[in-house]
Every structure is written in structure tokens, then in C-alpha cells.
Amino acid sequence: MRVGQERPCTKSEPPLTLVSEAASHPLPFPFMPKAQDKPLWIVRRSSIHQRGVFAACDIPKDRPIIEYVGEKITKKESTRRGLALEEKAKKTGGAAVYIFTLNARYDLDGATAANPARLINHSCDPNCESFIIRGHIWIYSLREIKAGEELSFNYGFDLETWEDHPCRCGEPCCVGYILDKQYWPKLRGILKARAKRQGKIKELENKLSDLKKTLTPKAPKKPKPVA
Ligand SMILES: C[S@@+](CC[C@H](N)C(=O)[O-])C[C@H]1O[C@@H](n2cnc3c(N)ncnc32)[C@H](O)[C@@H]1O
Ligand SMILES: [Zn+2]
């Protein structure tokens, strides 16, 4: 991941590959999905983070739910925006970035009110996934979703900046950080080694404090005043 750029995950195969290999692809149909007459989603407050997107009705598996729209920008412009947002984050303590990788040359900056899909939060056990279909990014249901459930996908962040992105998805399998699943075993190793180190430090601190107690001479008891 480039500096300062939070990049939700995408299936970045060229769209033509997706279409020509549709038979073996998990998507039920290889043609462009269309926006639904009646949106399948609704924006509400989320327990994960600020606002989120929720299912407005029961949604079956493999259903195109919402298109992730935005401004198509070059990688150079994407890096510039990422760095500017990083500067902003340093000053304000946070800055949401909505840039999706589109292909090897372009990214999509979804930071526009016209893109409610930008409000979909990350989950370690997501119910949605993003696919690029002929240059368009669509959010699909990974499984059947019940009305009222929050929509989520795995942002697919890499290991470089894991500590900057604690995860609050609340799922039993939550790894604690917003991270692509392929890095989970590595992160678990890092966290285990860190916990072990911290345990050792605590043990040494306790030993030192016990030692100090045995070395410090006890103050003589004050004689009780005679009445
Ligand atoms: C693309 S925005 C998602 C919409 C966001 N909830 C909002 O109201 O603007 C991404 C930001 O949401 C937050 N976020 C999303 N998923 C999260 C999660 N599982 N745990 C913690 N924060 C999360 C992070 O601050 C992240 O930078
Ligand atoms: Zn999580």
C-alpha cells in the first residue's frame, strides 16, 4: 500500500478476464449489473464506526448491491491525494480515504456524496465483496444477508501499516486490525511475539520490585506515646 492511502480491497483482474471466464467465476452473470429501482441498502449510524450501510431488505447471495462510484484518477494523482490526506490526518488525528485500485494505471477516488458505497465499513467476517466489472466496481453479497444487517467487506489492507488501523468489527474471528486475510497468520505471529515480550518485561518488573522490597531497610516502628 502506498503511503497514506487506505485502499479497500478489489478483485483486480482485468474486467475482460472476468467476462471471458464468467463460467468459472463465482458471479452468477457476466454482464454489467444495473442500479436497482429500489435500493437494497440504507445509510445509518454504525456500531463499527460512525456511519455504515445496511441491508434495507433480505438480500440473496451473489447479488450486485451497490456500485462504488467516483473520480477516475491516475496513480500519480492518487499518491498526491493520499499524501495530502496523510498530512491532514497528522493534524486532525484522522482522515478517511476512499481510494480504490481500479487497474495498473488508474484508481477511483470515491470521496463524493454521490457515492454512498464509500460508507461501507470493513469487517473481518464480511458479508460482501467488491468486484471490478468492465471498469466499474460493484459490491456483491457473499452470502444471504438479512434486512437490517450492516454491509461490510474486507478492505484488503496490507501489512505495512497494520498498527494504524485497529479493527472494531466485533466479529468473533476479528484479528484486531483492518488487514487482508492473507496476512492474518503473519499478524498473529507478530502479536504473539509481542505479547510474549510484554509478558517477559512484566515478569522482570515484578522481580525487580520484589528485590527492591527485600533490599530497602524497614523503618523502625515508632514507640507508642505513653499516656
Ligand atoms: C471508507 S470509510 C467507511 C465509512 C465510515 N464509517 C464513515 O462514516 O465515514 C473508512 C473509515 O471507516 C473506519 N472504519 C471502517 N471499518 C472499520 C472497522 N472495522 N473498525 C474500525 N474503523 C473502521 C476507519 O476509520 C476507516 O478509515
Ligand atoms: Zn475485525
CATH topology: Beta-clip-like
* Number of structural units classed as domains: 1
| Radius of gyration, in angstroms, nearest whole number | 25 Å
Give the ordered list of helices and strands: HEEEEHEEEEEEH
How can the largest sheet be summarized? 3 strands, antiparallel
Name the CATH architecture: Beta Complex
CATH class: Mainly Beta
* Gross geometry: elongated
Strand arrangement within the widest β-sheet reads: 3-9-8
Q: What structural category characterises the helix and strand content?
A: alpha+beta
Structural write-up:
The chain is α+β, with helices and mostly antiparallel strands and 227 residues long. The chain has a single domain, classed as Beta-clip-like (Beta Complex). Helices cover 25% and strands 19% of the residues. The chain has helices spanning 15-20, 75-92, 184-215; strands at residues 41-45, 51-55, 64-68, 71-74, 99-101, 106-109, 121-122, 128-133, 136-141, 152-153. A hairpin with a 2-residue loop joins strand 8 (128-133) and strand 9 (136-141). The longest helix is centred in the C-terminal third of the chain and has 32 residues, at 184-215. It binds S-adenosylmethionine (SAM) and zinc ion. S-adenosylmethionine is lined by residues 6, 46, 48-52, 96, 98, 118-119, 121-123, 167-169, 178.
